[in-house]
């Protein structure tokens, strides 16, 4: 199982069985002189600075990848409480830092299925297999996966 990421303090549909350690990843990037010059011109007329958008996206992904490597080294199933931070290191260079808590977690699906069956049995109804539990609905993923 790949390491799952959550900006929540828990992992939906999973029970955290062990908290391992804080994990982090960071990258320091500087702007390319040519891109910086173009961004300055673009700033005059307005609009999105796509060179910077791409730089930040690459930086975020690199920092996340480095954090995941540390989480995997601990044997983590997930990282919860995911947060991003940025800081200026020098003129034209910034750090993008991501951190969270590496945890071990197990799926709760079996427990949900058992409790649903018990509730329907108590009422005298049988579970409707065509109903889709809300747990199966797509969730927003800020990381684009």
Verbal overview:
Helices cover 36% and strands 32% of the residues. It is an alpha+beta fold and 145 residues long. It has a domain at 4-9 and 17-105: Translation Initiation Factor IF3. Strands 1-3-4-2 form a 4-stranded mixed β-sheet. β3 and β4 (93-107) form a beta hairpin.
What's this model, at a glance?
By secondary structure, the protein is of the alpha+beta class. The protein has a domain at 4-9 and 17-105: 2-Layer Sandwich (Translation Initiation Factor IF3).
Average residue-wise pLDDT: 76
What gyration radius follows from the Cα positions, in whole Å? 22 Å
- CATH architecture classification of the domain at 4-9 and 17-105: 2-Layer Sandwich
Main β-sheet, spatial strand arrangement: 1-3-4-2
- Estimated structural class: alpha+beta
- So, the CATH homologous superfamily of the domain at 4-9 and 17-105? Hypothetical protein apc22750. Chain B
Tertiary shape: elongated
Q: Can you count the helices?
A: 3
What is the CATH domain class of the domain at 4-9 and 17-105? Alpha Beta
Question: What is the number of E strands?
Answer: 4
Provide keyphrases for this structure.
145 residues; alpha+beta; Translation Initiation Factor IF3; 4-stranded mixed beta sheet; elongated
